[in-house]
């Protein structure tokens, strides 16, 4: 059974940092595009960052560029999201996802991601 399990969320104050982890099991994701998405209450899910198999040219949403860093450890089947200078507007449930049908460039085409984690809550207080 393929699973993606996120961890690392929590309640922090504005300006703080968090590091999210997503561990995959059930198959090797080393050649897949991996992404982080988030969904705030009452809002649509949005792509935060994505990374391809060799970590070249990761994608970042404009709202997080310069503050968030996506990385991966293929040996550990894990993708990370380092979040610095957190803002209240970053509050959301963060999900990791895998596109197992493509191993090219990092992208945020949500419909192409076929495996999703359950999510981890990130709450940033002002």
Describe this structure in a few short sentences.
This protein has 126 residues and is mainly β. It has no helices and eleven strands.
Task: Give short descriptive properties of this protein.
single chain, 126 residues, mainly beta, 4-stranded antiparallel beta sheet, 11 strands
Give your account of this protein's structure:
There is one protein chain. By secondary structure, this protein is mostly beta strands. It is 0% helix and 48% strand. It contains no helices and 11 strands. It has strands spanning 3-7, 10-13, 18-25, 33-39, 46-51, 59-60, 68-73, 78-83, 92-99, 115-116, 120-125. The strands form 2 sheets. Strands 2, 4, 5, 6, 9, 10 and 11 form a 7-stranded mixed beta sheet that branches. Strand 7 and strand 8 form a beta hairpin. The radius of gyration is 13 Å and the shape is globular. The N and C termini lie far apart (40 Å).
């Amino acid at each position: 059974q393929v699973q993606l399990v996120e961890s690392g969320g929590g309640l922090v104050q504005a300006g703080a940092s968090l590091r999210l982890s997503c561990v995959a099991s059930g198959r090797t994701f080393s050649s897949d595009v991996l992404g982080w998405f988030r969904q705030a209450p009452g809002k649509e899910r949005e792509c935060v960052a994505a990374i391809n198999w060799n970590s070249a040219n990761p994608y970042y949403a404009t709202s997080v560029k310069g503050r968030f860093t996506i990385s991966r450890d293929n040996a550990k089947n894990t993708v990370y999201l380092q979040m610095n200078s957190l803002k209240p507007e970053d509050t959301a449930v963060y999900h990791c996802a895998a596109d197992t049908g493509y191993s090219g460039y990092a992208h945020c085409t949500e419909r192409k991601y076929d495996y999703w984690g359950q999510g981890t809550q990130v709450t940033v207080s002002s």
